[in-house]
Amino acid sequence: MLGLWRTFNSVVSYITLAVSLGELVGNGLVLWHLGFHMKKGPFSVYVLHLTTADFLFLGCQVAVWAVQAALGGQGGLYLTVPFVAFSVGLWLLAAFSAERCLSDIFPTCYQGCRPRHTAGIVCGLIWALTPLTVLLPANACGQLPGGTRLQTCPWFHTASVAWLLTLACGASVAGLVLFIWVACCSQRQRPQFYGVVLGSVLLFFFCGLSYILYWILSSSLDLLLSWVPMQSFLRQPYSLSPLPTLLACIHCSSKPLIYFTTGRQPGKREPLREALQRSLGEGAPLGAGEVSLPMGRM
């Protein structure tokens, strides 16, 4: 059974590597168009940063696979570093979903009261604060090299679990409220971004949530087994990582497909740039190098 489990883990690891390598290209194309070929509205800023976080997470997975293949071994560092990028993406998804929800339910108040650079400020704060919320609990609970297991570990771990679940619930609730509002309450035509938000939230619920639960489980096992004398033999939470990691990679790599399928026009071949702009709902079809942004520039 142990040999079969190792074979299964190896197969899943190779599939994860293939998915990560393939979708680095997809996320790279989205970054290229959003970063250099489209003027940025408030929601394209969120998508740009979200795609950057997904790109970093997939790149970390490729790097971790290469390091493990070359040096061998497993450890909390191989989980903690990619989880920083994944957590940034979770923060951004929650903020993006909440703002999109508010912009459709309260359009007049949203456009009149929203500060101009809200998206950029929010994204900057997320990138600055998220590493601390991941690395501090990981270090206190001994998941990083040289980390210590002090009496503060349960407090850090509890706070980490609380904010992760809060973010997951926030993104899910925002997507659910938007779905109910557009489907039942709104009299306007269904907006293009509706599919982007709903697809991203559903993708997180079915694929990304397992990675968060795995992070919580591995941290809990580290904390509990730190008092077991034979912890070097018993402590094997990282052997469970290939399947949640694969699902997390699918979650991060499928967003470009959602953007394209939501924005494209059936039966018409068009550049990815036009489909991106249409799916974000921040302009009319592209003209000769110009972009129309009714929500204003950032």
UniProtKB/TrEMBL annotation:
The answer on whether this UniProt entry bears the keyword Transferase reads no
Cite a single GO MF annotation.
G protein-coupled receptor activity
Membrane topology per the entry is: Multi-pass membrane protein
The alphabetical list of record keywords is: Cell membrane, G-protein coupled receptor, Membrane, Receptor, Transducer, Transmembrane, Transmembrane helix
Fetch the InterPro entries from UniProt. MRGPCRFAMILY
Can you say where in the cell this protein is located? Cell membrane
Q: Tell me yes or no: is Ubl conjugation among this UniProt entry's keywords.
A: no
Identify one Gene Ontology CC term for this UniProt entry: plasma membrane
Q: Which residues cross the membrane?
A: 12-34, 46-71, 77-98, 119-140, 160-181, 193-217
Q: Which family does it belong to?
A: Belongs to the G-protein coupled receptor 1 family. Mas subfamily.
What protein name applies here? Mas-related G-protein coupled receptor member G isoform X2
Which gene is this protein's source? MRGPRG
